[in-house]
Each structure stands twice: as structure tokens, then as C-alpha cells.
Amino acid sequence: MATYNLALILKNCLNENEFLLVKQTPPPKFFDEEYDSFVDTDLWDLPSTKLNLLDGELEPGIAIEGMESLLPKINFRKYDIQSAINRVLEQVRIEAVDKGDWKFLKLVEEPEFGPGLPAHTIYVTGLTGGNESLPELCKWMHIQSCLNWLLDVKPSSDRVGPLAVIGVINDAVQYAEPKVHTTLKHQEYPPGVTLVPMKSRTQKPFHTTNVIIFAPQSVSTECGDYKFVASGDALIVDPGCLADFHGELLKIVSALPRKLIVFVTHHHRDHVDGLSIIQKCNPDATLLAHENTMHRIGKEDWPLGYTPVSGGEDLCIGGQRLKVIFAPGHTDGHMALLHISTHSLIVGDHCVGQGSAILDVASGGNMTDYFQSTYKFIELAPNALIPMHGRVNLWPKHMLCAYLKNRRSRETAILKAIENGAKTLIDIVASVYCDVDRRAWIAAASNVRLHVDHLAQQNKLPKEFSTQKFQTTCGLHFLVRWTLAYLAGGFLSNYKQNMSKLLIAGAVAGFAATYSVKYKFNCK
Description:
By secondary structure, the chain is an alpha/beta fold. 30% of the residues lie in helices and 21% in strands.
């Protein structure tokens, strides 16, 4: 199942090389001066709208040449296409569209980024009068102007969204060979940055990890005279797919140039499970990682040497420059990667496509570091945030500020729970995450522990609160009480459960101890 959107490529009849872009509406403000002071630049994209289902089937009132070719994949007669076109035309205030010039261009199926349904897009072209007075939120653009915005990013410059890139621009830039050899659905946005979501051992609500690939087919002069920690003809980031997908990963790697760079943002299994496949397929590949990350990657994953990075280094991939960013917080070896020409930022697990990230207390996760890394990302002012789970985020500063706001809100709630008498980890988690599925409490506990550490560093904890006693409640004590709460439907205070439940609780607690740090879940 999927949802469907309609995107219109409205061409100017006075100059058919021009098409219409619409300024996109930014997310709502926070109404907090600190966060609202960070503003993303304007984003322009094709006019689009969601396609609504009809009660039955109906031929579109507007004739669209070529729509019948959709029938093997989607019965377009079940969707109200005419109303969708009318909504878009009202949005851009254009009436003069020759009804005989509507043509179906293509259907683009979105990869399964998760956690929701993929959103597929039907692209339809139309020809306008070209002499209409456009509202301020619209402008005529041509492909080269869009490419200049996309590939030669200037500070505070406007941006072009994925519908225009995937629907128009990528098709106009022809390549002799596909950039990525795979049968899996994938997405190239920003240009040159290909995301292939692959099933992985990640945690709900996600099911995939975005394996990211750079494989420039035309050599750029962008690298200049920089000193590079590594140079190659292609780059692959976080190959963390399940064994069932190692065949697809093998096809991808086999088709990439031999001079391959592999970059891992951190050591979690859903980011490194495919390393052994790359090493076997291309023993000459160079692995880049922080030393804290490599200490946690097994020899069975990568038995060869590696190049350590600590932040600030530059990579040259096919003539394109990328900068390594040290971004601790999620783990103590967590890294990010900035693609210079598109100014897009690969953020690892610092951010996820939906919800908030979990910090790994067992691998050096640190709340102070997390806040500092978030501000570092804001200062970089990227054009797009590319997480390893979920869709590309088009409003980076807003997303990062939302993360800051969420973490501070949680920290305030944790402090309030402590001031109200909570002294153990389970008591704090139960108070702060009372509206969250109890299955997520183990993951939440990792963040709570780090928030308590952060409060202690700021000398904000009440004097009567003992951090030493608190630490003693973070192991088996928490796991047993969480298990009892889960089995008893949240009855936290009564320890006198019947013997069968206690036996089950012990078994579940023992199992949970093995996986006591779950580092991603939707607890926003």
C-alpha cells in the first residue's frame, strides 16, 4: 500500500524550457525567540497535492495523454485527479492551461523509508499561457538555474526541492550507466546523493537503514588543493543491511569503482552489518571511522586496517569534496559528513526521520555532547539533513531546533519528577513517559540516565537526590520493575505478583538485560 501525490510540471508556452516552481510553506514557528531565530532559506518545488480516493471509479474530467499506461500499477480512475489539478491551479493562480496539453510523464515510487507508507508521485505536464501575472510565491525556472542552486550552494541561497529534482532535473542530466545497480527502490536527492533504504536490525518504528552512495560520473575540480585524509572514485556510507539483503549490497558494490571509500557514522549493527560483504567484494576498499567506533566493530566485520578520523578531515570522491564532522552524543564516536557542493549533511543517528533519537548510554552517549553537536549542525546551516532512518529532511534548522526543544522539555519533566519525589530510574521513566508505550521504556531509560547526568553537571538536582543511589536502580532493579509494569499493565507499585508472573518477569528481565540499550524509537 502507498499514498499518491500529483505533481504538475507547468511549462511556459513562451519558453518551454521554463517550468513553474512554488515557494514551499515552512513548518510552523515555535513561538520561542531562541528557536525562531534560526530560519531555513526558501525552498522552491513543483506545485503538488495529495490525490484523494473516490468512492468508486471515475474517468478524469480532464483528458491526460498517456494515463492508461499507469493501469498495470495503479487504477487512476479511483483517484480524483481533476480536483487535484484544480487545487494546484488555484494554488498558483493560473487558469489558462490548454486542456489538450495535459500529458502523463511518469510515476515515481518512493522507497520504503518508513515508518509510514511510501508516498508515490504521479507527474503530469501542462502548457500555460506564459503571460499570467504570477503571485510572489511562484517563479519560472529552467534546469540550469536549478542546478546552479543545487550544486553551487551559496550562504543563504534559495533551495530546490525533491519533486523538481526527481521529476525534471535528474531526467535532464543523462548518464551512460545507472549510478546504483540494484533492484531496490532508491532516491537521488540532493543530486549526486543516492539513498537506498535496506532492511536492517534497526529498532521500531523503522525497519530500514539508508545506505548512502556517492558515485560521481563526471570528475569535478571542486577538490582543489585541499589535503585529504582519503580519496576515491566512490563512497558508501553505513552499509548496515540484513543478511537477506547482502546480495543486493554485493551487486551495488561490485558495480562501483574499485577505488572505494567506506564511511561509518558509528558502530551499531544496523550500520555495519554489511561491512564484511564490502571487504570480501573489494579488499582494496578504505574504511574510515572514529577510533571509538572501530574498537566496537568486530574483526569478523572488517579484519583489515582502517583510517581513523576525528573530525575536520576532508575526503575527495570523484573530484567532489566532503568534510568529516565529529558529532558525539548518540555515541562517543559518532560522526557526520557534509557534502560541500550541495551543502547536505549526513547526520547518522543524531536525527531520525520521525520522532527523536536515543542516545546509547553503554557506548559513551552523552547529553552535553548531544546538545553541542546539535548547535554545531545548526551553525553549519545545511540545505538538507540526511538521516540513516527515514526521509531526507528539507527544513534542517527547524528540525534541529525541534530536537533541542524536545530534549529540554524532557529534561524539565525529569527534573520535575525528581523534585516530586522520584528517586529511581523506573519511577522517573514512568512519570515522564507515561503516555508512551511501555515497550519503549527501556529505550527511554537510556536518555533519562543521560539527562540526570546532564542535570547533575549543571548542579540542578535537589540536594536530597542521591545520584549514587540512582545509579544502583539503573540495572536489574529497573528491568524487573519494568517487566512487572509491562505484564501487569502498568501497576508499578505492587511487587506482590503471583509466582507465574514473577517467573515470566525474571525470564523477560534476563532477556531485556542483553538488549537494555535500544537506541531508536518514536518517543517524541
